[in-house]
């Protein structure tokens, strides 16, 4: 067993979490409680890259970037839920709290407690993954040369730019992605290896 294998085996891999995330990617019709009007059934799903919660309100697609969510709450504790409180659906309810010009929430009611538990577990995992740079799959690929976004060449250049350390004139005329595990600088070309 290699060093990377030992690291992966130490991770708290939970089959229930992965099943919940997979079910969320397939989607479900959930009751969405908004700021105005009655709750509406909307199709919800998790994006394939696990970065967005996507739903349709009428004909319009809506997205919530999970990295903007800072809290997930079980039950009916938000202002939207209190406005239309349904005590018999307390165990079926989930709220995602996020910032967008102030504190906002997406308030959902699932069909039963089992579905609510699955969505709560899956959303918690997806939110946690969106807040950390590397997911379980990135750690599994560690022996194959996968890099975290902090140590990647693009991350390095972005940090230099944000700190004002980049020259005005761009030194790199071309960026090429080449399979492998090292970075090559040649002829004003930056090759980023994945």
From TrEMBL:
Q: Which InterPro entries match?
A: PH-like_dom_sf (IPR011993), PH_domain (IPR001849)
| The name this protein goes by in its record | PH domain-containing protein
Which species is the source of this protein? Hibiscus syriacus (Rose of Sharon)
**UniProt cross-references to SUPFAM superfamilies, sorted A to Z:** PH domain-like
Instruction: Read off the Pfam families from this record.
Output: PH_12
User: Ranges for the PH domain?
Assistant: 18-125
């Amino acid at each position: 067993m290699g060093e990377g294998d030992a690291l992966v085996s130490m991770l708290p891999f939970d089959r229930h979490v992965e099943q919940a995330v997979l079910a969320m990617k397939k989607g479900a019709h959930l009751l969405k409680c908004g700021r105005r009007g009655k709750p509406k059934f909307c199709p919800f799903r998790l994006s394939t890259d696990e970065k967005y919660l996507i739903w349709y309100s009428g004909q319009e697609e809506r997205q919530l970037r999970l990295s903007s969510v800072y809290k997930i709450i079980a039950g009916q504790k938000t202002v939207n839920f209190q406005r239309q409180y349904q005590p018999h659906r307390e165990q079926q309810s989930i709220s995602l709290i996020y910032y967008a010009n102030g504190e906002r929430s997406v308030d959902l009611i699932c069909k039963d407690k089992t579905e609510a538990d699955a969505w709560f577990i899956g959303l918690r995992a997806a939110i946690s993954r969106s807040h950390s740079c590397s997911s379980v799959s990135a750690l599994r690929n560690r022996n194959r040369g996968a890099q975290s976004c902090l140590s990647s060449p693009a991350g390095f250049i972005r940090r230099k730019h944000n700190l004002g350390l980049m020259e005005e004139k761009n030194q790199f005329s071309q960026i090429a992605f080449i399979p492998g595990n090292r970075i090559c600088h040649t002829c004003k070309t930056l090759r980023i290896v994945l």
